[in-house]
Amino acid sequence: MPSKIDGLGLFTLSTIDKGVNLGITHITDSITMKLFRTPLGGFVNHSKTPNAKIVDVQRFKYLYTLQEIQPLEEITVTYKMYNPEN
Predict the structure, then answer these.
(1) Whole-prediction pTM
(2) In the chain, which ranges are E strands?
(3) CATH superfamily ID and name for 10-77
């Protein structure tokens, strides 16, 4: 769905509770140690006031909600691998 932040964004069609694991955003290959983004991770935009966060668990990065998210609200995180504002 078009985002007011940048390009396409990740939106919900129904209310999502706080603390929900939305899925895997990135996977680290255990042999090459390269990081691969999943389709879910490809559409999450940066915000200084995010409503979700990415949590590292071994080779995987998961997207968790930080608060209740309303229908048609964009799901955002604060980028940590780089600063998109530079």
Answers:
(1) 0.88
(2) 10-11, 21-28, 35-37, 45-46, 52-57, 60-65, 74-77
(3) SET domain (2.170.270.10)
